[in-house]
Design brief:
Blueprint: H1 3-14, E1 42-46, E2 52-59, H2 86-98, E3 104-108, H3 115-132, E4 138-142, H4 149-158, E5 161-163, H5 171-177, H6 183-201, E6 207-213, H7 220-232, E7 238-243, H8 260-278, H9 283-286, H10 300-307, E8 314-315, H11 321-324, H12 332-341, H13 349-354, E9 366-368, E10 371-372, H14 380-388, H15 402-408
Parallel strand pairs: 2-3, 3-4, 4-5, 5-6, 6-7, 8-9
Antiparallel strand pairs: 1-2, 9-10
Helix pairs in contact: 2-3, 3-4, 4-6, 7-8
Length: 411
């Protein structure tokens, strides 16, 4: 098999792994036009100093001894298989780099023979790149679950970043859809890599993972709980969420193919994950055992606010930074703008607009010069209707009482 044919097969097989910043694009090509794109095995990531780098995203092999129900490369699938030798792939990477096609490599593989054998092949490829070709560029390497501690140690020393996909958030789902994997084997590489990096430098190595959304019946509560635990244990810098792609048929797989609601759910999970990592939210604040899934029509912060109206309305002239960033529509940058500006004057809604802070959502959760807005009463039903309506001013209040009237200045 020729190199280009192998590359086509193995780049296509790698596109389902989203645990880097992007997985390429798949747009209609207009031949002869400028900027035409296609799914060519190029993805992009960001370095610690903020640079965007393009990576060759490819598998060493799409042959695999595992039979995970959701995976296109499962052993029971009848599809064209291909493999690079470590030297062949290292040479290809350098040739692409010299032609300025790429700046680095995103490398993974199916499990060939066994876990350690596959990990050794990946390490050999990196050694050729680093030592023979002198390549010091960015390499993101997927660690193989179940491989030995010694091999993971060598892999971490050669790669710029490593990751290991846990795929599903619960042991129950793994047992159902990926019976050859277990919670211990999928978490093993992350734990080993973290402990090794802390032992050597007292600073955890940057790692990521992927969770598939919609392949199992795990709720958003289950997913965010797993992500939160991984963050708290310093096992990960980031979780990537991937809407289930209907590539296989099986008794334990969803009957309905990938759809818009599933993609929207993926987006809501990314938004909720952002709140966990940067806004100080806990997973059990956003969801609980009674309300286990995020609202597809409302962003997670607004969803939380509507379910916790006891914290609102907030006086933006007195609130702390921690309170300000929990107001829907106000982010961290907006909160700092408010804290700085209110040193000089008492702020109102017009002032927020001048600071380029959107009040479309925020106006329903704040006090404007000590008074609450008059359009919509502070009740979940009213606010939800107003937030989802294109013309909130036309909405008649569903609920009214003296407390609301006092806040709005009507009495």
């Amino acid at each position: 098999m020729k190199t280009f044919e192998k590359l086509s097969i193995l780049a296509d097989s790698a596109k389902y792994d989203v645990s880097c910043s992007s997985s390429g694009s798949d747009e209609r090509i207009k031949y002869g036009g400028i900027g035409a794109t296609h799914n060519s095995g190029i993805c992009h990531t960001f370095t610690s100093d903020g640079r965007c780098v393009s990576l060759l995203k490819v598998l060493l092999s799409n042959s695999c001894i595992y039979d995970c129900s959701y995976c296109i490369n499962r052993v029971s699938n009848d599809r064209k298989r291909a493999s690079f030798s470590p030297r062949e792939l290292a040479k290809l990477t350098i040739e692409f780099y010299k032609r300025n096609y790429i700046e680095g490599l995103f490398l993974s593989s199916g499990i060939i023979k066994n876990e350690d054998y596959t990990m050794e092949l990946l390490i050999t490829c990196l050694k050729i790149l680093r030592y023979e070709y002198g390549f010091d560029g960015y390499v993101h390497l997927k660690l193989i679950p179940g491989s030995s501690k010694e091999l993971i140690d060598i892999a971490c020393s050669l790669a710029s970043r490593v990751s290991s996909n846990i795929e599903l958030p619960s042991s129950k789902s793994l047992k159902l859809l990926a019976p050859q994997k277990s919670k211990e084997t999928v978490l093993g590489p992350l734990i080993i890599a973290r402990d090794l990096s802390l032992k050597k430098s007292k600073k955890p190595i940057l790692m990521s993972t992927q969770m598939i959304i919609g392949a199992s019946d795990d709720s958003d509560f289950d997913i965010l709980k797993t992500a939160s635990i991984l963050y708290e244990k310093a096992l990960l810098k980031r979780v990537y969420y991937s809407a289930y792609v209907h590539v296989n048929v099986g008794a334990n797989l969803p009957i309905i193919p990938q759809s818009t609601p599933l993609l929207r759910r993926e987006n809501r999970l990314y938004q909720a994950d952002w709140l966990l990592r940067f806004y100080g939210f806990k997973y059990d604040e956003l969801l609980d055992t009674q309300q286990q899934n995020l609202d597809l029509n409302l962003d997670p912060k607004t969803f939380w606010a509507l379910n916790h109206l006891e914290h609102f309305p907030i006086d933006i002239n007195k609130a702390s930074k921690e309170q300000l960033i929990r107001i829907p529509g106000i982010g961290i940058k907006g909160a700092f703008k408010i804290l700085k500006a209110r040193r000089y004057k008492t702020l109102n809604l017009e002032d927020l607009a001048k600071l380029k802070i959107s009040t479309k959502k925020a106006k329903y959760f704040i006090l404007d010069r000590g008074k609450y807005q008059k359009e919509v009463p502070l009740y979940k039903e009213n606010l939800q209707l107003a937030l989802l309506s294109p013309s909130p001013k036309l909405i008649q209040p569903l609920l009214f009482d003296e407390n609301y009237a006092a806040l709005s200045g009507e009495i």
